[in-house]
Design goal:
heterodimer; A: mainly alpha; Non-ribosomal Peptide Synthetase Peptidyl Carrier Protein, Chain A; 3 helices; B: alpha/beta; Rossmann fold; GMP Synthetase, Chain A, domain 3; 3 domains; nine-stranded mixed β-sheet; five-stranded antiparallel β-sheet; 26 strands; globular
């Protein structure tokens, strides 16, 4: 989880990834951030996030992103 | 033919009165309703007693902004949209140049608007719409409007940190709109999905092609552009057949693998402009949608929207660059070398433009106007203004224009036109920053900031957010102990580029 937070911080340093559960709902991340995050996750965790998983509820918090990555790692 | 842009709306009301003209997430307006709302707004401005004066529109993006645009035009004044997501400090800079007589806003934004209003009168949309209309009065004002009168002022990034307001007349916009309609064969069957912000010149294509042709535009909720399947579902549901988007938005769909989720059965046209389209992403679109017409358009706000167009007529490798194509009707596009002579062969030169679509210049900014809008150096016998774009290009063997690079430090990031100097000016105003320099990594689409001083990167971001729009915030902020300097004692950009691996 810490590793994931570091990765996210590297992409956007002014977002409170540790605590926020409204990354999308409060527009803390924009479309460019999402593209960068998806690309970084694909690279770092050797997964391929399908378009069907790129939806608000999977990106609203670091925990949600973490769960998605775990699930995709198991599946793929 | 239309003389001023309100003629388009008058015509559409007669032909398509009950048809949906514009729709956003919450509401929609038929042509009749759009005109009625515009009349109310015009009446409010006429009663306030202004004519040929700037009117700032401070509203969230949506259908009522269009009513405010048209209402301002019916009243014989000109509009300038202010982005409600922009930091107040930048809006204040725009205000100090525009000095609007009126700010049209709504109850939701009234308190914010009061912060930067200065001497401008705040008129609330809700109150204006409640007032009576006297159409005769509006018609007598419209009769006084000349096609050379200003229609709007759009502000773009300025290198010294002061945004520049591009002044466009009715005549320029009509010329551009007529070209687009004829060139593409646009009619009332077109359904547009608007992506670009209304303070962006590309949006005038969506808005005025719609009104001229009795078509329909859906204003796509911004959040859809973060989630490609939600976006595609939206486009499918609304039977969208025409996109005029920045390449970043189109690429998002293809990069994230959502081109077929779902497949867009109605799609007929994909137009793009505002920055270079990555050919690799375009090829993915073409593979999924081979029947669609793809068009690469080029032009800065200063030529209304575009001055060249290229309809894709052949295949391109992922590594090949798309041509910008040929000049639009009533536009002459030519390349000048360093000696202000026409280039020969495939020599690279600055893109220069002349024609009806040219802006009058920058609002209240004689110095910058005279730098970019100059006498045609190819003839001195009579006054003739050309616009120097600052873009470098060359002609290929087929006689098509191909983009090369910028002459200066202007960049295109996610379709936004940004002067790196504007970011640098904002950063240098922050306490704890000694010196700074911004670079752009074109390949990765990243704005990179190098700075010296005592402030931490996240603190710097927080301060910077109060000064510039979100899209100007550097994606990487790197603190360094000392700034590399060249022999002249200036910041050594080349050295920094090496450090950044550009």
């Amino acid at each position: 989880m810490e590793e994931l937070i570091d990765l996210l911080k590297d992409i956007k340093d002014d977002v409170d990834f540790e605590h926020s559960t409204t990354l999308i709902d409060n527009r803390e991340l924009d479309s460019f951030d999402i593209i960068q995050i998806v690309a970084a996750l694909n690279d770092e965790y050797d997964i391929k996030i399908p378009a069907s998983d790129i939806i608000p509820k999977n990106f609203n918090s670091a925990k949600a992103i973490y769960d998605m990555v775990q699930r995709l790692q198991d599946e793929q | 033919m239309a003389r001023i842009i309100t003629d388009y709306l008058d015509h559409a009301v007669l032909q398509h009165g009950d048809k949906c003209a514009f729709a956003d997430e919450k509401e929609k307006l038929t042509y009749k309703e759009l005109q009625e709302e515009a009349f109310h707004i015009a009446e409010g401005l006429i009663h306030y007693g202004i004519f040929k004066k700037p009117v700032a529109i401070y509203l969230d993006k949506g259908i009522h902004v269009i009513s405010a645009f048209l209402g301002t035009a019916y009243s014989g004044n000109f509009y300038s949209p202010l982005d409600t997501e922009m930091p107040i400090s930048r809006i204040s800079k725009i205000m100090s140049t525009l000095l609007p007589s009126v700010i049209i806003t709504d109850e939701q934004h009234e308190v914010e608007a009061a912060q930067f209003a200065g001497n401008a009168k705040i008129l609330l949309l809700e109150e204006m719409i409640g007032q009576d209309i006297c159409e005769e009065e509006i018609r007598s004002i419209v009769d006084r409007v000349a096609d050379t009168d200003v229609l709007y002022v759009l502000f773009t990034s300025g290198s010294t940190g002061m945004p520049k307001g591009v002044v466009i007349s009715h005549k320029s916009l009509i010329d551009f709109t007529e070209w687009g309609s004829h060139y593409f064969g646009i009619d009332d069957s077109y359904i547009f999905a608007n992506q670009t912000p209304f303070y962006f010149s590309m949006s005038v294509f969506d808005i005025y092609q719609t009104i001229r042709n009795g078509a329909t535009t859906y204003i796509v909720p911004k959040q859809k552009f973060s989630f490609p399947t939600l976006l595609m579902e939206y486009l499918a549901e609304k039977h969208i057949n025409t996109l005029y988007w920045v390449p970043t938005a189109l690429s998002m769909v293809s990069i994230l693998g959502a081109l077929d989720s779902p497949h867009l059965k109605d799609l007929r046209n994909v137009f793009f402009s505002g920055e270079v389209m990555p050919t690799k992403q375009l090829n993915r679109w073409r593979k999924e949608y081979p029947q669609v017409r793809y068009v690469n358009l080029y032009g800065p706000t200063e030529v209304t929207d575009v001055c060249t167009a290229y309809v894709l007529d052949r295949d391109f490798d992922d590594t090949e660059r798309l041509p910008m194509g040929q000049a639009c009707r009533n536009m002459d596009v030519f390349l000048l070398n360093d000696h202000d002579q026409l280039v020969k062969g495939q020599e690279i030169g600055e893109v220069c433009v002349r024609g009806t679509g040219l802006a009058y210049g920058y609002y209240g900014d004689k110095t910058n106007t005279e730098k970019a809008f100059v006498q045609n150096p190819l003839q001195k016998a009579y006054p003739e203004i050309i616009y120097r774009t600052g873009d470098l290009a060359q002609w290929n063997e087929r006689g098509e224009l191909v983009y090369a690079s910028r002459k200066d430090f202007q960049i295109k990031h996610m379709g936004h036109r940004i002067e790196l100097g504007e970011i640098e000016a904002a950063v240098s105003s922050i306490d704890g920053v000694d010196s700074n320099c911004c670079l752009y990594n074109l390949k990765k689409s990243l704005i990179i900031l190098y700075y010296t001083g005592t402030i931490e990167p996240d603190q710097l971001t927080e301060q910077l957010k109060k000064l510039v729009p979100e899209y100007m915030i550097p994606n990487r902020k790197k603190h360094i102990d000392s700034m590399p300097l060249n022999l002249n004692g200036k910041i050594d950009r080349q050295k920094l580029k090496e450090m950044a691996g550009i």
